[in-house]
Amino acid sequence: MLRDDLPLPMRRDCLIRYFKCLCMIEPLFPMTTSPNPPIFVWYNAFNPHQDSSQHNIHLEKASVLFNLGAFGSHIALSCDLTTLQGQRIAINALHDAAYWFLILTHEAEKASATIDLTISCAQILR
Q1: Where are the domains of the chain?
Q2: Taking a C-beta distance cutoff of 8 angstroms, is the pair 89, 82 a contact?
Q3: pLDDT-based confidence at 84, cuts 50/70/90?
Q4: Which element (helix H / strand E) includes 95?
Q5: Residue whose C-alpha is closest to residue 64's, from 24, 17, 109, 26
Q6: What transmembrane ranges does the database entry give (predicted)?
Q7: Which of 46, 41, 79, 85 is CA-nearest to residue 60?
Q8: Which of 2, 10, 116, 9 has its CA nearest to residue 62?
Q9: What band does 6 get if pLDDT is binned at 50, 70 and 90?
Q10: Which residue, 4, 6, 49, 53, could crosslink 10 as a Cys pair with Cβ 3.0–4.6 Å?
């Protein structure tokens, strides 16, 4: 999903499309009653050969929102701040990151499966 060979804006756009897909399928798979809920696989960032899986769509959405906020911050940091255009892009990217982190605080209320996605930890990011 997150290919390193794509530019940051394209990687961000892929995550936005994935987040929209998660929002669309969420009502179709009630996680508590579905006999075959979707499985979300996560890979270890430090050791990509290790992975884990889980069925919590809210946790998956929260992780996507966190990554979207991180991409916004990364895009802002990669801008050329010596030009007016670079400054505008950086400001827009930081506004975008703040938006995704705000949405993350709402999703964290539903996810709350891990200590790092509690509401208080998500609010620190805003």
Answers
A1: 8-31+56-124
A2: no
A3: very high
A4: helix 84-111
A5: 17
A6: none
A7: 41
A8: 116
A9: confident
A10: 6
Percent of the chain with pLDDT over 70: 79
pLDDT at 9 over 70: yes
Query: Which residue has better confidence, 15 or 116?
Result: 15
DSSP labels, 35-80: SS---EEEE-SS-TT-EEEE--HHHHHHHHHHHHHHHHHHHHHTS-
In one-letter notation, the amino acid at residue 59 is L
Q: How far apart are CA 73 and CA 39, in angstroms?
A: 29
Average pLDDT over residues 76-101: 95
d(CA 5, CA 14): 13
Q: How far apart are CA 72 and CA 64, in angstroms?
A: 12
Distances in Å between the Cα of 104 and the Cα atoms of 38, 88, 89 are 21, 24, 22
Task: Report the chain's mean pLDDT, rounded to a whole number.
Answer: 82
Cα–Cα–Cα angle for 21, 23, 38, rounded to 5 degrees? 70
